[in-house]
Amino acid sequence: MNPPPHQMRVRIYDVAKLAGVSPATVSRVMSGSRPVSEGIRARVLEAARRFDYQPSQLARNLRRGQAATVGVLVSDIENPHFASMVRAIEAALYDRGTRVLLCNTAEDTEKQSSYLEVMASERVMGVVISPTADGDDAISHLINLGVPVVAFDRPVADPRADAVIADNAAAIALGTQLLVDSGRRRIGFIGGGELLSTAAERLAGYRSAIESAGFEPLTAIGDFTVEGGRRAAEQLLTQSRDLDALVIANNLMTIGALQALRAGGILLPDEVGIVAFDDPPWASLLDPALTTLAQPLREMSEAVVARLFARMADRTLPPVRICFDCHLEIRQSSRGRMTSIAGG
Fold first, then answer.
1. What's the half-sphere exposure (Cβ side, CA atoms, 13 Å) at 177?
2. How many CB atoms lie within 10 A of CB 34?
3. Which CATH class for the 12-63 domain?
4. What is the model's pLDDT at position 23?
5. Which end of the chain is more exposed for a tag (fewer CB within 10 A), N or C?
6. pLDDT tens digits for 224-273?
């Protein structure tokens, strides 16, 4: 075993290469989580000594039987939906005596990969992630290391990961049908683009309902942001002067769409009705109050944590995808147009 060259930063991969074992084996030796042969253990410890490699504080805690840490990655912590989800997950983990390492990727794929590398080097006991990029190789690397991964809100590409998600397509179809039943005919959709699975599923739900009603689909992309929602609403209003309803695929785009409607002097729901995905606290405080598609965040959070702990207890469990129905919260923003009622 030759001494390694000087390096600015030693990683678990370097120790594994010098010892002639996998990174997962190095992790097992350092954490003491699983037995290994004395020969392999000696090689790993010698490689670590030559590199002056020190396991993280978490690994030392694990050997002492102290509290474990779970990594939680969210794609946009400023989004009230994710903030509520994280709060519920953190509470459920805390009740089980587990600490949380929270990271916000801000829909940045490079940040996601970087944080996942931190999770791997810190040897967290599990990872809960709402992915920005579902096909990130760093996710597969964590699973290869034996770290359980549970996706929430959005699934990941690696089929070995568990997922807790909402039935996006069915929810949006339900909300769109509500507007159809209220007499709306020119119903636009503001979506988040098709690169994210949630965005594609919600668009599919809208198209299904619109096509079943025999109406023309009217769509615009808002990128799941406030500014994007405003631009998308302006686009639809310009392209379709007779637009009489909007289905909006998340709460941030709803804020932007409301800004555009107010700037245009358009009355809700008399001129344009709205159904929005997500049910933030302010939805019921608006005038008119907002009709929403509410995800059961607490139940979903409890399912995430329960699945994570089940996976940590038995790594051989087959992966599952748990899908929750959304609840349609009918409020004033989706009621029928007054002009339609007056005209009989």
1. 11
2. 12
3. mainly alpha
4. 83
5. C
6. 999 999 999 999 999 999 999 999 999 999 999 999 999 999 999 999 99
Q: Are 230 and 191 in contact (CB under 8 A)?
A: no
Structure-token pair, residue 137: 């190789």
Q: Name residues whose C-beta falls within 8 Å of residue 331's C-beta, 6 or more positions apart in sequence.
A: 283, 284, 288, 289, 290, 291, 292
CATH classification code of 69-166+297-325:
3.40.50.2300
* Cα–Cα distance, 255 to 230 (Å, whole number): 8
| Gap between the Cα atoms of 274 and 192, Å rounded | 17
Q: Please list, in sequence order, all residues whose beta carbon lies within 8 angstroms of the beta carbon of residue 265, skipping any fewer than 6 positions away.
A: none
Cis amide prior to 269 (ω within 30 degrees)? yes
Q: b or e along 60-82 (b: 16 or more beta carbons within 10 Å of the residue's beta carbon)?
A: eebeeeeebbbbbbbbbeebbbb
Share of the chain above pLDDT 70, in %: 90
pLDDT digits (tens, 9 = 90+) for 262-271: 999 999 999 9
pLDDT score of 167: 98
More confident residue, 100 or 35: 100
Other CB atoms within 10 Å distance of the CB of residue 272? 24
